[in-house]
Specification:
This protein is 41% helix and 14% strand. It has a four-stranded mixed beta sheet. A two-stranded antiparallel sheet has the order 1-4. It is globular. It starts with a helix and ends with a helix.
Length: 181
């Protein structure tokens, strides 16, 4: 019971901080995008840096427990449908949290399939997107709040980072600007 209370407190703290962090400038903007660790994953392999050259990349950091991530899903789905093209690549990193539904503790062998179930249920537009599962990716990108959206330009430079909820209009505008160049 104490473990569930701690997890609940952490969830509330993380989701609450998303609204504060959303206004902070990103130290990654204007810098080369960090490499994504690709060992454990759900779905296809993460494309190599060479394969991503010349493409716009949307990186969606999310978590299986995150209600704000799920609330963002319809917006993401509509915008990605609007701009669907071979020039736009979506990667959806997440990490292990040590539990599954209802806060039940779970080893990675149980949590990874649970991540796939959540992805398929709440994010059907991500079924064919690479989903690397690694805490290292969150550390490399400085992610301490989910959801976080990152846009990488055709040269591999981070051009946009937004933590927390986002309007469809704002995401559309940011993505449209990169796809035109």
């Amino acid at each position: 019971m104490k473990s569930k209370a701690i997890k609940l407190f952490l969830l509330i703290a993380l989701c609450g901080s998303a609204r504060v962090r959303a206004q902070s400038p990103s130290p990654l903007e204007g810098r080369a995008a960090p490499r994504l660790e690709t060992g454990v994953r759900v779905g296809p392999a993460v494309p190599s840096t060479t394969q991503l050259k010349g493409k716009v990349v949307l990186v969606f950091f999310w978590a299986h427990w995150c209600e704000d991530c799920k609330a963002l899903a319809p917006i993401l789905g509509r915008v990605l449908e609007k701009y669907r093209s071979p020039d736009l690549v979506v990667i959806a990193p997440t990490r292990l949290y040590g539990y599954v539904a209802d806060g039940r503790s779970a080893p990675p062998t149980k949590e990874v399939p649970y991540i796939a179930q959540v992805r398929d249920r709440f994010y059907p537009f991500l079924r064919q997107a690479p989903t690397p599962v690694s805490e290292a990716n969150q550390k490399r990108y400085g992610i301490d709040v989910v959801p976080t959206l990152i846009l990488i330009d055709r040269n591999g430079t981070v051009r946009f980072q937004h933590a927390g909820q986002m309007t469809e209009e704002a995401l559309d505008s940011a993505l449209q600007g990169l796809l035109r160049t």
